[in-house]
């Protein structure tokens, strides 16, 4: 639950702040200049701020936050990037969970998505690389990691829930529990 609150606070600060530099805990994120394109070097710098022991090389990194590991892959020539977080083998999911993932993709996963590849369920954030701002990247990374940590419970990226879907009732119970414990969101 602590991780979820950290990600939610991170997302709130990133979206609400209009200063040139944004500090979230020990991580400082610079707002991306409107004319400055995201590239491997810029993304590397952002990732190192979050994980000083970042693994990999330009275009393919493994980042660790808390106990969770995510892969960040870019292709500058194709102008694409993705953050992927392995969650569980498909053969180990309970009946009905794949349907629940599809519901979450509609209303509570937001910019992150649950997906299946090579027999594994992943959370993923996929975006064109060059137009990605620092804030969008950090938000997408946080959402993919939060979606992985909430698999099996709220199936949420930690951001808002799109109304009209099936997740709001499940989320209400989650938020009420936090409020009862005296934690502000």
Structure description:
The relative contact order is 0.17. The chain is α+β, with helices and mostly antiparallel strands and 185 residues long. The longest helix has 16 residues, at 134-149. The protein has one domain (2-180): Yope Regulator, Chain: A. The chain contains five helices and eight strands, in the order H-E-E-H-E-E-E-E-H-E-E-H-H. Mean pLDDT is 78; it is low at 11-26 and 170-185. The chain has helices at 2-16, 40-50, 97-107, 134-149, 168-180, and strands at residues 21-24, 27-30, 55-57, 60-65, 68-75, 80-89, 113-117, 120-128.
The CATH topology is Yope Regulator, Chain: A
Please report the total strand number as a whole number: 8
Overall mean confidence score, pLDDT: 78
What general form does the structure show? globular
Give the uncertain stretches in residue-range form: 11-26, 170-185
| Beta content | 25-35%
Side by side, the strands of the main sheet go: 3-4-5-6-8-7
- The first-level CATH class is given as Alpha Beta
Q: What is the rounded distance between the termini?
A: 12 Å
| Portion of residues within helices | 25-40%
Known CATH architecture: 2-Layer Sandwich
Total number of domains: 1
Brief sketch in words of this structure:
The protein has 185 residues and is an alpha+beta fold.
Show the helix and strand layout.
Elements: H1 2-16, E1 21-24, E2 27-30, H2 40-50, E3 55-57, E4 60-65, E5 68-75, E6 80-89, H3 97-107, E7 113-117, E8 120-128, H4 134-149, H5 168-180
Antiparallel strand pairs: 1-2, 3-4, 4-5, 5-6, 6-8, 7-8
Helix pairs in contact: 1-4
């Amino acid at each position: 639950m602590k991780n979820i609150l950290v990600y939610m606070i991170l997302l709130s600060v990133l979206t609400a702040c209009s200063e040139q530099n944004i500090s979230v805990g020990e991580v400082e994120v610079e707002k991306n200049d409107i004319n400055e394109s995201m590239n491997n070097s810029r993304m590397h710098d952002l990732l190192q701020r979050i994980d000083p022991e970042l693994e990999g090389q330009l275009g393919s990194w493994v980042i660790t936050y808390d106990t969770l590991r995510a892969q960040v892959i870019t292709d500058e020539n194709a102008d694409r990037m993705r953050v992927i977080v392995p969650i569980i083998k498909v053969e180990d999911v309970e009946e009905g969970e794949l349907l629940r993932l599809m519901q979450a993709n509609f209303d509570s996963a937001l910019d992150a998505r649950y997906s299946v590849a090579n027999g594994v369920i992943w959370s993923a954030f996929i975006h064109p690389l060059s137009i990605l701002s620092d804030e969008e990247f950090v938000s997408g990374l946080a959402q993919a990691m939060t979606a992985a940590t909430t698999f099996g419970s709220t199936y949420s990226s930690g951001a808002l829930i799109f109304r009209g879907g099936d997740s709001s009732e499940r989320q209400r119970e989650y938020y009420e529990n936090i409020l009862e414990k005296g934690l502000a969101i």
